[in-house]
Design goal:
Layout lengths: L2 E3 L9 H14 L4 E4 L11 H20 L3 E5 L6 H11 L7 E2 L7 H10 L4 E3 L6 H9 L5 E2 L8 H15 L2 E2 L7 H11 L8 E3 L6 H6 L6 E2 L2 E2 L13 H7 L27
Parallel strand pairs: 1-8, 2-3, 3-4, 4-5, 5-6, 6-7
Antiparallel strand pairs: 9-10
């Protein structure tokens, strides 16, 4: 199945940072697309300087991607007002992103409708959906073009399959949210292989910490921008039970960090990050 890359831009701040990391990501494997969040620490609103910095990052990645026959996808992480998201879309439309992911706050349905009416770019969302009926709402209201359910959030294999089938009935493309680890990835490899309306599968595999690949004996690598569906029993992968014992930890309080847990590490920078 075709794969698009996420997690590849850790530590990036400047356009040059993004360009160099994009070159590395696409030199190893010709991914279908590169997805990334170019907005630094902007939240809710975005001023012109931050928007200009975001555009320069997008331009740098788009240039690399186009040379490699790849595309780009813009991640917003569901953190902008409709007004800010619209201004972002107006500035970035020229780079032809395949989709704009979660452009507005996840509970701002009126804002999403406003965005839909003003922006002529595909909208991707769905990782926060918990039930098939929630997925149905977004499709019936024509608020999503690329649906991104998460098998860990929607009731497992059965709930995810129901949503994939609903999306097929509505003619909505799917590109599952697949950000957590090798077992979730194995589940999506099996499920996504049944989806006739699949765009591409999100993949962090190349940028996993080593232990995540070792957990499944590195059995689902990305090759030539694609990932093969494993054909073993169950989810198709064998779990390294011995490694699980090695990785056991006692619960402990998590320190409050300056950077939100939902951003790719090292990218939460004020304005242009310089």
């Amino acid at each position: 199945m075709p794969a698009y890359a996420n997690g590849w831009y850790a530590g990036c701040a400047t356009p040059d940072d993004f360009s160099k990391k994009a070159e590395v990501a696409l030199s190893g494997s010709p991914y279908f697309a590169l997805k990334f969040d170019p907005f630094g620490a902007a939240y809710d609103l975005i001023d012109d300087r931050s928007l200009s910095a975001a555009e320069m990052r997008v331009a740098a990645v788009a240039e690399v991607a186009s040379k490699r026959g790849s595309s780009i996808m813009i991640e917003h992480h569901g953190r902008f007002s409709a007004t800010a998201a619209i201004s972002i879309a107006e500035r970035l439309a020229k780079y032809s992103p395949l989709f704009m992911e979660e452009p507005v706050h996840p509970d701002d349905y009126e804002g999403l409708m406003k965005y839909r009416n003003r922006v002529n770019l595909p909208i991707a969302l769905g990782e926060r959906i918990l039930t098939p009926s929630q997925a149905l709402f977004f499709m019936k209201e024509h608020l999503v073009d690329v649906l991104q359910p998460d098998v860990c959030n929607v009731g497992g294999i059965t709930g995810a399959k129901e949503i994939l089938d609903l999306a097929d009935a509505f003619g909505v493309t799917v590109s599952p949210h697949n950000a957590f680890g090798p077992i979730q990835n194995a589940a999506w490899l099996q499920l996504a292989s049944t989806a006739r309306n699949l765009l591409a599968l999100e993949e962090f595999y190349q940028w996993y910490p080593d232990w995540k690949r070792r957990l499944v004996y590195d059995s689902t690598p990305i090759e030539d921008g694609k990932v093969r569906v494993p054909d073993g029993p169950g989810l198709g992968v064998k779990v390294n039970e011995g490694l699980l014992d090695e990785l056991k930890l006692e619960p402990k309080a998590v320190d409050v960090a300056d950077e939100p847990v939902w951003v790719v590490r090292g990218t939460w920078r004020d304005r242009d990050g310089l």
